[in-house]
Amino acid sequence: MGVPAGVFQAMFTVVNIERLELTPETNGQLLSYIGFVTMIMQGFVVGYIGRRVSDKTTLIGSVVIVALSYLVLMVTSTLFQLCLILIPMIMGGALLNTLTSSVITKVVPDTATGTSLGLSMATHSLIRTVSPTLGGYIYQWLGYPGFGALGFTTGSLMAAVLMLRGGIPGIN
The Major facilitator superfamily (MFS) profile domain covers which part of the protein (predicted)? Predict the structure, then answer.
């Protein structure tokens, strides 16, 4: 799920300035809005859900939320619509990122936790390295809906695999 997020993030400012004709000031406000929503999600919502819902349900649910958010992203055409769809997208992403780190620490031996988290961070760095180039090609070939299509396809496949396998072994 990191690839669609990385690609969308890498191209976000350029695409939205061009597509939605945002001024630099409005783009800055949009990025601040995203930071605020992220802060609320990570500070309050992730903990609230984590205390009430199992890891397995949270994992599958967050993947489905993100996938559906990308599906709706394909047809957004206004700044208001984008701001609305970013709320569940950010929520699902925050849940998924937090849960991924938690799962890594639960399924590996204590002696391998640091290595596992390091490999996870290295994977994120790799995604951030290739995302701008991949995003440029997607935008050139498929246009704005291509970002939504990538996220929806990836999320749908991941959700299907998780549901068919019953989640991740060792996570309840």
Answer: 1-172
